[in-house]
C-alpha cells in the first residue's frame, strides 16, 4: 500500500497532468490595449507607496502548501486582505470560487448594520456590456462586424483624420481600436444628486456629442476608451428596444440571480457604501455618478459577483448568460494592430499567461477604477477558479489591490491543482541581450520620458531617473532615492522590465513585468521636438466652467526642450492628479498631443471667446484664468 506521502505526491502529479487540458485552442493575434480606467494613477500610487515607506522586502517567503486544504486557503486569503483594510482602505469586499461551484465571500472594515452595501466596480462593467452585445448577436439583432453607424448614424458626423478610412465596427468599439478619442471628458461626471431621468438623458446624449470630433483609422491603434463603451450601451438600447437598466436587469442581473446589482444609483434593499480618499487621513468623498453608464457604473456586492460568475460559467453548457459559442468568442484573442509584441484581449476581457509544470495557463479578468472605488476580477474559465475584490478608498494602499488579488488567485489555483502558477515574461524578439534604444525623448500615457545612454543607461519614469541594468536579456530597473544612496528593493519593482524595439516603424519602449502584461501600461514612443509654438497669449492656465469636471483645468507652456507642453489636471475621488504630455503645433489653430494610446494623438483647438484665449479639448471649453 502507498504511504500518505506517496498518495499526496500521486494526487499532485495527477493534478499536474490535468494542466494538459488548460491551454485554450484560441488563435493568437496582436493587441496593445490599456485595461484600467486610470492606470497611470494606479502606478503612481504604487510608486508613492514604495518611496514613502521605503519598502526593503527581499521577496523571500516560506513555501506553504494549500493543496486540497480549503480552510487553510480561506484563512490565508482573509489574512492577505486584512493587511490592506481597515488601516489603508476603509472597507473592502472580496469573493472567491475554488472550482467547486461554491461562492465564498466576506467584507472587511467599516460597514453599516442597516443595509446590504454595494461597491462600484468601475470598468469591470465592460464585461457585462460585452456579454450583452454577444447576447444581441445570438438573437440576430446585430453582428459584431456590423458597421456601428447602422445603430449610431451620428458616427457619420465624425471627421476622419484622412480620407479613405473604413467604417468603425461594433467589434472595433469592443476592442478599444475604433480610432475615436479615448474619452469625452466634458460631461463625464454628473452631479452626485442627479436623478435617474437626468442620468438617462446624459447617457443617451452621448452619440450627439460626436459631431465635430475627429477619428483615426480603426484597427491601427489601441486606445482604451470609455467613450466606445458608452456608445455600445446606446447600441444595446437601440438594438434591443429596451432601456439600458432594464436590459441589464432582465438579461444579466436577474438571469444570474443578482439581487443587489444596478447600473443606476439607487436600488431598494441595498445602498452604495460611502467612499473615502486621502494619503494619511481619510475623508468622505462625493458619490461618483457618470454619464457613460456601460463603461463603468455598475455597483454590486461580492456575493452577487459570485452568482454572476456561476451563471457565466454555465454558458459552457449553453445554460448560462451566453451560448458556448459566444463564451468561446468572448475569450478568444481578437485581431488587433500589427506590432512587435503580443497583448491578449478578448471581448473585452484581458488575458494573462502563466506557467505551471511547463504548461501555459491563461487567466482572464479586468480591473475597474471609479475613484474612490477600485476593483479587480481574475478567473480561470477552465477550472472555474475566481478571485474578486472591491475597495472604497483612494489612497496609498489602493495600488496594492490588484497585485494582492493576483496573489490570491495563485493560492486558489494551487489549492485545486497542487501547484502554484508562475507568471511568465513574454518571449524575446530574437535578440541575444538587452537592446539599447535611441537616445532622446519618449511619450507614453504616463508622461514624458528621457532616455540617456551610459553605464548604466537611465530612463525617467514618474519623475525619477532609474538605472537600467541587464536582467534576463532585458533591462531591469535599479530604483534609488536620497541621491542614489538607498536602493528600493521591493520585488514588484525588481520585476519590472524595459524593452526597446519598434512599433509601426517608430522607436518605442515597453514597461512590463510578470504581473504587468507587456503593453498594458502603454508604449513609450520616441519624438523629436521641432521648436514650433502657437502665439504667446495661449500659454498659461485654462479653467472650465463645467461642474464636477473630471478635467477641471489645463496648463499650456513653452517647454525649454523645444515643444509645447500640456499639463492635464484630473480631479478623481477627492484627489488631484496631473499628467504632462508634449504637443506639436500643426498650425490652423490646432495642437496635436504626441504619442499613441489613451488620450494621446488627440487634438486641441485654440481660439478666442469674447476676446479671451480659449482651448477646446475633449468636448469641453477652457478659458484662460
UniProtKB/TrEMBL annotation:
<dbReference type="Pfam" id="PF00144">
    <property type="entry name" value="Beta-lactamase"/>
</dbReference>
<dbReference type="InterPro" id="IPR012338">
    <property type="entry name" value="Beta-lactam/transpept-like"/>
</dbReference>
<dbReference type="InterPro" id="IPR001466">
    <property type="entry name" value="Beta-lactam-related"/>
</dbReference>
<feature type="domain" description="Beta-lactamase-related">
    <location>
        <begin position="89"/>
        <end position="395"/>
    </location>
</feature>
<dbReference type="GO" id="GO:0016787">
    <property type="term" value="F:hydrolase activity"/>
</dbReference>
<dbReference type="InterPro" id="IPR050491">
    <property type="entry name" value="AmpC-like"/>
</dbReference>
<protein>
    <submittedName>
        <fullName>Class A beta-lactamase-related serine hydrolase</fullName>
    </submittedName>
</protein>
<keyword id="KW-0378">Hydrolase</keyword>
Amino acid at each position: 500500500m502507498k504511504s500518505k506521502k506517496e498518495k499526496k505526491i500521486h494526487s499532485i502529479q495527477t493534478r499536474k497532468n490535468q494542466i494538459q487540458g488548460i491551454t485554450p485552442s484560441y488563435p493568437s493575434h496582436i493587441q496593445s490595449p490599456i485595461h484600467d480606467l486610470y492606470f497611470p494613477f494606479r502606478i503612481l500610487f504604487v510608486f508613492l507607496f514604495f518611496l514613502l515607506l521605503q519598502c526593503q522586502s527581499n521577496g523571500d517567503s516560506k513555501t506553504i502548501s494549500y493543496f486540497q486544504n480549503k480552510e487553510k486557503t480561506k484563512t490565508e486569503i482573509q489574512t492577505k486582505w486584512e493587511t490592506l483594510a481597515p488601516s489603508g482602505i476603509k472597507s473592502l469586499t472580496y469573493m472567491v470560487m475554488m472550482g467547486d461551484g461554491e461562492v465564498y465571500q466576506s467584507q472587511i472594515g467599516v460597514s453599516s448594520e442597516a443595509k446590504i452595501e454595494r461597491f462600484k466596480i468601475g470598468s469591470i462593467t465592460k464585461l457585462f456590456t460585452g456579454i450583452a452585445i454577444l447576447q444581441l448577436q445570438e438573437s440576430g439583432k446585430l453582428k459584431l462586424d456590423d458597421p456601428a453607424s447602422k445603430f449610431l448614424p451620428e458616427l457619420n458626423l465624425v471627421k476622419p483624420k484622412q480620407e479613405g478610412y473604413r467604417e468603425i465596427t461594433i467589434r472595433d468599439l469592443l476592442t478599444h481600436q475604433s480610432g475615436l478619442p479615448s474619452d469625452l471628458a466634458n460631461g463625464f461626471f454628473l452631479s452626485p444628486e442627479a436623478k435617474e431621468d437626468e442620468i438617462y438623458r446624459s447617457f443617451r446624449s452621448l452619440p450627439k456629442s460626436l459631431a465635430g470630433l475627429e477619428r483615426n483609422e480603426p484597427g491601427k491603434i489601441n486606445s482604451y476608451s470609455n467613450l466606445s463603451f458608452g456608445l455600445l450601451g446606446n447600441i444595446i438600447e437601440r438594438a434591443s428596444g429596451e432601456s439600458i437598466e432594464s436590459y441589464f436587469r432582465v438579461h444579466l442581473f436577474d438571469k444570474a440571480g443578482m439581487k443587489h446589482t444596478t447600473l443606476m444609483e439607487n436600488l431598494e434593499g441595498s445602498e452604495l457604501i460611502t467612499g473615502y480618499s486621502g494619503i494619511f487621513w481619510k475623508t468622505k468623498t462625493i458619490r461618483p455618478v457618470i454619464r457613460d453608464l456601460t463603461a463603468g457604473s455598475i455597483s454590486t456586492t461580492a456575493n452577487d459577483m459570485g452568482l454572476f460568475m456561476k451563471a457565466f460559467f454555465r454558458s459552457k453548457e449553453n445554460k448560462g448568460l451566453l451560448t458556448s459559442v459566444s463564451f468561446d468568442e468572448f475569450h478568444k484573442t481578437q485581431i488587433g494592430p500589427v506590432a512587435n509584441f503580443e497583448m491578449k484581449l478578448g471581448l473585452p476581457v484581458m488575458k494573462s499567461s502563466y506557467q505551471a509544470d511547463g504548461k501555459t495557463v491563461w487567466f482572464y479578468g479586468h480591473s475597474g477604477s471609479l475613484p474612490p472605488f477600485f476593483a479587480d476580477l481574475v478567473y480561470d474559465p477552465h477550472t472555474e477558479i475566481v478571485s474578486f475584490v472591491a475597495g472604497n478608498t483612494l489612497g496609498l494602499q489602493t495600488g496594492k489591490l490588484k497585485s494582492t488579488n493576483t496573489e490570491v488567485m495563485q493560492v486558489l489555483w494551487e489549492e485545486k491543482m497542487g501547484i502554484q502558477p508562475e507568471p511568465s515574461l513574454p518571449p524575446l524578439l530574437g535578440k541575444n541581450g538587452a537592446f539599447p534604444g535611441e537616445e532622446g525623448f519618449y511619450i507614453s500615457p504616463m508622461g514624458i520620458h528621457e532616455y540617456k545612454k551610459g553605464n548604466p543607461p537611465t530612463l525617467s519614469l514618474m519623475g525619477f531617473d532609474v538605472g537600467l541594468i541587464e536582467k534576463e536579456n532585458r533591462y531591469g530597473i535599479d530604483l534609488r532615492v536620497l541621491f542614489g544612496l538607498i536602493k528600493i528593493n521591493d520585488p514588484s519593482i525588481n520585476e519590472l522590465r524595459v524593452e526597446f524595439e519598434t512599433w509601426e516603424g517608430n522607436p518605442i519602449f515597453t514597461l512590463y513585468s510578470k504581473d504587468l502584461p507587456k503593453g498594458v501600461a502603454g508604449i513609450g514612443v520616441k519624438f523629436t521636438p521641432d521648436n514650433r509654438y502657437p502665439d504667446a497669449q495661449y500659454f498659461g492656465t485654462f479653467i472650465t466652467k463645467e461642474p464636477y469636471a473630471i478635467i477641471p483645468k489645463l496648463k499650456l507652456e513653452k517647454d525649454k526642450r523645444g515643444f509645447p507642453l500640456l499639463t492635464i489636471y484630473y480631479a478623481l475621488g477627492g484627489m488631484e492628479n496631473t499628467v504632462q504630455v508634449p504637443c506639436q503645433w500643426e498650425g490652423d489653430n490646432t495642437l496635436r498631443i504626441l504619442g499613441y494610446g489613451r488620450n494621446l494623438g488627440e487634438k486641441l483647438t485654440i481660439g478666442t471667446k469674447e476676446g479671451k484665449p480659449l482651448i477646446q479639448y475633449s468636448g469641453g471649453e477652457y478659458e484662460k484664468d
